[in-house]
Amino acid sequence: MSGRDEEFAEICEGVRALCEKFPGEYWRELDRERAYPTAFVKSLTEAGYLAALIPEQYGGSGLPMRAAAAIMEEIHASGCNGAACHAQMYTMGTILRHGSEAQKKKYLPAIAEGKQRLQAFGVTEPTSGTDTLSLRTTAKRDGNDGYIVNGQKIWTSRAEHSDLMLLLARTTPKDEAKKRTEGLSVFILNMREGGELTKGLTIKPIRTMMNHATTEVFFDNVRVPAENLIGEEGQGFRYILGGMNAERILIGSECIGDAKWFIEKATSYAKERALFGRPIGQNQGVQFPIARCYMQMRAAELMVHEAARLYEAGGDFGAQANMAKQLAAEASWAAADMCVQTHGGFGFAEEYDIERKFRETRLYTVAPISTNLVLSYLAEHVLGLPRSY
């Protein structure tokens, strides 16, 4: 059931061995307390897995997207949760692609080594949601040496466990921007520097149905040095799109890993659980849903692999990244539901870990982009239908 690229078999074996040190008991305890998996993230960092996409010249592994996808898939197929740190892999891409050489040298080696965490992505806001172009957080020029940020972000995951934030803010009023997609800028915000640079920054945790370490962040005259602007002022929306597509591919990989975990769990239980003198897996009413989920997972897996391949080749891969995330999320959710049904009452028991991963994988039909926006994107940009939003 692997379906993994044999080119990265050794990497997958290493990830699997690391994950074995963090069994279900570890995750259940964290889940009860809504605590961050610090030890797990530290182990992944020290092993170099979270620096997979950072080029070797900046201290990373310089691996292709397919390798990064294999790492995230293996984490989830092993029963662990990469959501605690997956942004450490892809958020730095905006700096890598659009930052100055000075910014790359300053941040990327520290991120690769784990001395600094860049896994907070300040984009979504309460009023605009996924309508990114309507965000209201502003960054106004303060003389020649900085910007003053005011506003609010929501669903900024891992902000409490990140040193840096990639922040998208409006630097030109929406009605004054030359184009609809202009007027937004990207900044590197150091949340741990203290003093004047983080005065006015407030982070509030949001308790959710799964242990996701997400927050809302308030900016009250927070100062950002001008040198922390990435690329050209006003072009930030374009800069973050590549990172968003990378995110969708990696989260698609996580969903494939989840689906494989659920299918393996259900298959094993259906073989072992006997009722009326025979294993329940002998009944078509039990085995057919498992087989159907397996087909759905393998089809989605092909799209994730295709999206990762096109990412490496460059060019426009937005449609494939969106389809990969959506199909994989639907496959993992179907497998989760099937796994609970196969286990019956035991599927709801904490000790089986199914209910935990059931809650965790449900997120991805909503985030990081909702189903309807994926469908709207495909309808307009692939099928040529009229714009719906």
Provide keyphrases for this structure.
389 residues; alpha+beta; Butyryl-Coa Dehydrogenase, subunit A, domain 1; Butyryl-CoA Dehydrogenase, subunit A, domain 2; Butyryl-CoA Dehydrogenase, subunit A, domain 3; 3 domains; 4-stranded mixed beta sheet; 4-stranded antiparallel beta sheet; 12 helices
Structure, described:
This protein has 389 residues and is α+β, with helices and mostly antiparallel strands. It has three domains: 6-112, Butyryl-Coa Dehydrogenase, subunit A, domain 1, CATH 1.10.540.10; 118-234, Butyryl-CoA Dehydrogenase, subunit A, domain 2, CATH 2.40.110; 238-381, Butyryl-CoA Dehydrogenase, subunit A, domain 3 (Up-down Bundle). The protein contains twelve helices and ten strands. It has helices at 9-19, 24-33, 38-46, 65-77, 87-90, 93-98, 101-113, 236-272, 284-313, 318-343, 354-362, 371-381; strands at residues 118-122, 138-141, 146-154, 164-170, 184-190, 201-206, 214-225, 229-230, 274-275, 278-279. It has a four-stranded mixed sheet with strand order 1-4-5-8. A four-stranded antiparallel sheet has the order 2-3-7-6, with no helix packed on it. α8 (236-272) packs antiparallel against α9 (284-313), α10 packs antiparallel against α11 and α10 packs antiparallel against α12 (371-381). The model has no long low-confidence stretch (mean pLDDT 95).
